[in-house]
Design goal:
This protein is α/β, with parallel strands linked by helices. The protein has 15 helices and 24 strands. The strands form seven sheets. An eight-stranded parallel β-barrel has the order 5-6-14-15-16-17-19-20, surrounded by seven helices. Strands 7-8-9-10 form a four-stranded mixed β-sheet, covered by helices on one side. Strands 11-12-13 form a three-stranded mixed β-sheet, covered by helices on one side. 43% of the residues are buried. About 2% of the residues have low confidence. The protein binds ligand MZP. The site of ligand MZP has 23 residues, from strand 20 and helix 12.
Amino acid sequence: MAVVLKEPSRTFNEYLLIPGYSSAEDRPENVSLKTPVTKFRKGEEPAISMNIPLCSAVMQAVSDDKMAVALAKEGGIAFIYGSQSIESQAAMVRRAKRHKAGFVPSDSNLRPDQTLADVIALKKETGHSTIAITDDGTSEGKILGIVTSKDYRVSRMDPSTPINEFMTPFDKMVYGKEGISLSEANDIIWDNKVNQLPIIDDNQRLTSFVFRKDYEEHKDNPNELLDSHKRYIVGAGINTRDYKERVPALIEAGVDILTIDSSEGYSEWQSLTLDWIRENYGDSVKVGAGNVVDEEGFRFLADAGADFVKVGIGGGSICITREQKGIGRGQASAVIDVAEARDRYFKETGVYVPICSDGGTVYDYHMTLALAMGADFIMLGRYFARFDEAPSAKLMVNGNYVKEYWGEGSARARNWQRYDLGGDAKLKFEEGVDSYVPYAGSLHDNVALSLSKVKSTMCNCGALSIPELQKKAKLTLVSAVSIVEGGAHDVILKEHSNHI
Ligand code: MZP
């Protein structure tokens, strides 16, 4: 006879937090959202932590190199999707790792024998007035001079004037040497009263520019998640089939953390993958595993050597696994159960294996609930797919801007092994849909708003950190009727407002 759990499978919408005592100290500006990502022994620090408890889903529509940079700037981690060739995934990792905060590759470049007319045309095309003059006209050529709007007067000069007659030549240029820090570059900019600083290598080749106007932007990112070389921390998804080729390529590209991406992770395929990584790299490569929804699944992956465990089956907004296969569990029940399992495991072994609530986060308050229920961090797909930085197309549908968002188990993304059992069989049915999500603007603004709500609720619970929230949170189930009471009711709304 099958085991039948006594409790129904519950989701975030069925819970609310009951406020606890908050002192005068419990103010949002005092809240830390720092959270562990990789396992650690009692009394030790995790090798990787995040400054905000959010990571982006391993999905084609969500996590590429642009998302990786944008999210690391805020203090989180993007896991670049694995449903692409090893070469293109590694190239994305490499691009994100090469992206140095404040150092941007030159996008306007000409040769000295080109003319003022070329300068004007290029300025019109890019909208940028700083043009690097290199021997071959590329962004990595030997720099011979620079042209800014101070160097020419369109009304007084013949458009056919060669650039080398009016550019600021190299010997009169202010530049920085490759390897200097952003703050050193900014000091040079300020001391010399210039607006831009070309950065060059030992062979006088241009590597990037630092612009005065970007200074404020970088001052604004106190949470940036950087490695020891001041590069952004970048994650990537792997699968249980081609890991022997994919993992070395990603490591070579500089990836910081991997996660096995599978809709169902309580399987021998995952332990074989973890074994291979441990045999070849020991503990130096950090890798998460999943997804699971109960204690057995968690213990299996923790014992198999996972650095963190992802929790959630069938709760994703684009996911139809529960309908198609009849497997899964309400996201709240899964997180609560696995969090208890993690704490027991910690008590028994002294090893804390962080857990990630993956999928089904709809409202900002669901983030707070997931953390209160024990999640160390949260993986989101739909949430990030709505932003400018997500790779998918922005379209106008019925008068509204939307972005495309499709599941990794949809026909659009399939032909990769995530949704089969790790063998050679091709996917025979879909487990995800192709959809639109409302366009929501920039990642920075949205993450700031969502986390301000999380921090505010934490203060209502008297918690200034995630572990404190987990200790102090008091949760209650809500009745179906009381959910109506929770929204605006019995009033005539003046205009539609979006509460997400
Ligand atoms: P959500 O944030 O859109 O609700 O859920 C994102 C999560 O759904 C992903 O991190 C992944 O675990 C899961 N997912 C991705 N594709 C599918 C699918 O096609 C899926 N079924 O379930």
